[in-house]
Amino acid sequence: MAKHVIKKAPKKQPDPQKEETINELIEIFNKLEFTVRVEKGRFKGGFCLLREDRLFLINKDLEQDKIINILARNLASMGIDKVFMKPNLRELVENALVNDE
Questions:
Q1: 40 near 29, Cβ under 8 Å?
Q2: For residue 74, is it within any domain?
Q3: Model pTM?
Q4: What is the number of structural domains in the chain?
Q5: What CA–CA distances, in Å, run from 40 to 49, 58, 60, 66, 92?
């Protein structure tokens, strides 16, 4: 009897530009005194308070575009007017807020 082997689809190679955007957005969270952790689990991402630690969790299995969207939307909801960020990141965050309404 022949065995059927189910192969997983190959994982997409990360886009270096999107990876840089993710890292820059994470740096902004760090400036706001959040620890960003990329974890495996049944969640998309969001804020978490663990004892006294302010965390922001991101599901490591999400596509880069979804991670960027989650980070940008949550930054937008925090009111980041006084936080310095590159113009392209500010535009991304502000657009996330507009698109979320």
A1: no
A2: yes
A3: 0.78
A4: 1
A5: 18, 8, 6, 15, 26
Q: At which residue do the structure tokens 């949550």 appear?
A: 74
- Average pLDDT for consecutive 10-residue bins of the chain (101 residues)? 68 87 95 88 71 86 92 88 89 81 51
Q: Give the residue numbers spanning the domain of 74.
A: 16-100
Q: Are 38 and 11 in contact (CB under 8 A)?
A: no
Predicted local confidence at residue 88, as pLDDT: 94
Q: Which is it for strands 35-39 and 53-59: parallel, antiparallel or unpaired?
A: parallel
In whole angstroms, give the CA distance from residue 59 to residue 26.
14
Q: Comparing C-alpha atoms, which of 50, 3, 57, 62 is closest to residue 29?
A: 57
Q: What angle do CA 70, 31, 54 make, to 5 degrees?
A: 65
Q: What is the DSSP letter of 35?
A: E
**Residue 56, number of CB atoms within 10 A of its CB:** 22
The answer to whether the CB of 28 falls within 8 A of the CB of 75 is: yes
